[in-house]
Design brief:
By secondary structure, this protein is of the alpha+beta class. It has 2 domains: 9-208, H-NOX domain (Alpha-Beta Complex); 238-341, Arc Repressor Mutant, subunit A (Orthogonal Bundle). 53% of the residues lie in helices and 9% in strands. It contains 16 helices and 7 strands. The protein has helices spanning 12-24, 29-35, 52-64, 71-81, 88-94, 99-109, 143-160, 181-187, 216-232, 239-252, 259-265, 270-279, 284-300, 307-314, 319-330, 334-341, and strands at 9-11, 49-51, 117-123, 127-134, 169-171, 191-192, 199-203. It has a 5-stranded mixed β-sheet with strand order 3-4-7-5-6. Strand 3 (117-123) and strand 4 (127-134) form a beta hairpin. 35% of the residues are buried.
């Protein structure tokens, strides 16, 4: 499983889910975050990554508070409550044609959510087994974490299929409680504790269930963005990579990026950021141009997206300015580039 130079990490979205769950349980999340050394400013940066070890430490403290008799199930449902808007990964799954496609995307891009946990799909003759591998460098296996992951998988699949998909088996390696009514109520399927593997099992034909209102064009846009996000994981020590991720996120949200707004998000002065980029032999302008070029190339490959729409998205004041920039990048004007593509 790929790991960054800093070790396994999770997205800030997962930290936000944990915060919401803790607050719903009446637990002081900020006190726990402070105790493990989490910089709370990270919550305002949607592209940030947080040490999986810190996540694991916070998770254990919240669970050990004892305020929730079934923390695994409830945290899993808390994550699913944020579906689909809380993560590009979940939004991609919603726009896949079938459950099979959605699970493939889930496995392929899960590192965007957390590279410390890697989902696994195993195919039998008539069954699909959904399980995972966890980096022990991040945090050791924990029964409630296993319950949270399986509950999350189950809730997402239930949401995608509008309740049409029902598991045919739910398996946990740890010993179960005396009363498992809460588990039966959540999964509505046969449940086994002290099994050989933690996994959710579904029928193979469930892979063909179509996802209502899936949008293939939107999926392709999200997939392109997800590829860049996945590639950036492990490069968070590079200031230019941080700047590029922030610029990309701002552009995709329709916000015109500038060095002052980006340096503020990175908790740096304008001059300090300029010095760090200079040390990496680049500039803020180069980072901005890199993002604009990649987004322009991605969108020009889609015949239903107009050049005017791209000009507006990239924040150019007029099309002539975009044309000059595009010719500088590729040696061609946008219309000639499109003709060659077609």
């Amino acid at each position: 499983m790929p790991e960054s130079k800093r070790g396994p990490s999770v997205s800030v979205a997962l930290i936000r889910f944990l915060k919401d769950y803790a607050e719903r349980m009446g637990i002081n999340f900020f006190a726990i975050a402070g105790a493990v050394g989490l910089d709370l400013a990270v919550l305002d940066n949607s592209r940030a990554r947080v040490s999986a070890r810190q996540f694991g430490q916070m998770w254990r403290q919240i669970v050990d508070s004892g305020k929730d008799p079934t923390p695994g199930l409830n945290f899993g449902e808390e994550m699913a409550r944020h579906y689909p808007g809380g993560s590009i990964l979940f939004t991609m799954m919603m726009n896949c044609a079938t459950i099979g496609d959605a699970l493939d995307a889930f496995v392929r891009y899960h590192r965007i959510m957390a590279d410390a946990i890697q989902p696994q799909l195993r195919h039998d003759d008539d069954r699909i087994h959904l399980s995972w591998e966890v980096s022990q460098q991040a945090f050791p296996a924990h029964p409630y974490l296993s319950e949270a992951l399986i509950c999350t998988y189950h809730s997402i699949l239930k949401h995608l299929t509008k309740g049409r998909l029902h598991p045919i088996g739910v398996y946990f390696t740890h010993a179960g409680p005396d009363n498992i009514d809460a588990y039966r109520q959540v999964f509505k399927a046969p449940i086994r504790f002290e099994a050989k593997k933690n996994e959710l099992v579904i029928a193979k034909e469930a892979l063909d269930i179509e996802i209502h209102l899936a949008n293939q064009e939107l999926y392709e846009i999200l997939e392109s963005h997800a590829d860049r996000l996945a590639d950036s994981i492990g490069k968070e020590n590079d200031w230019s990579s941080k700047v590029i991720r922030l610029i990309s996120g701002m552009v995709m949200k329709g916000i015109k990026p500038n060095i002052d707004s980006v340096s503020k998000k990175l908790a740096l002065s304008r001059r300090n950021l300029q010095e760090k980029l200079k040390a990496e032999e680049t500039t803020f302008r180069n980072c901005l141009e890199s993002v604009r070029k990649q987004i322009a190339l991605d969108y020009l490959a889609k015949p239903d997206v107009t050049i005017c729409a791209i000009v507006f998205l990239l924040g150019y004041s007029e099309q002539s300015a975009f044309n000059h920039a595009f010719k500088r990048w590729t040696g061609k004007n946008p219309k000639a580039y499109c003709r060659e593509l077609n």
